Amino acid sequence: MTSTAKTVDINEDVTKALRKFRFQRRSQGHAAIVIKINKAALKMVVDEEYDDISIADLVEELPQNSPRYVVLSYELKHRDGRTSFPLVFINWAPSSSETTMMTLHASALLDFQRVAEANKTIEVRDAEEGLTKAIVDEKLLS
Q: SS3 for 100-123, per residue?
């Protein structure tokens, strides 16, 4: 019998918040839920939730020196005129983050991706260059 030890716990509050976020009906704009790791408790907690936020504003709100998991409901305009709202997982991991936090963040990444159930993943190491509307569009339309 094999058991895997988890470094960081995804508590029930985070799971419920993600489920609620995932099933909300949206008619316009982008929305995001930001999850951080509580280093002392070794568990994930909801850091912030945003409705109708631009990608540029989201980048401004995210910390420049600390990793976060972001699930983004993105208003995507398709080439044929349709609009959809796919979920995008953003692994926000600025290279200037503290090594201990980056290690915890990386150790819990796969577990969080499984729980988030997003359509696409975007890795961001450089806040200024790494997350723009053009990058998200390119990732989703390719």
A: HHHHHHHHHHHHHHHHHCCCEEEE
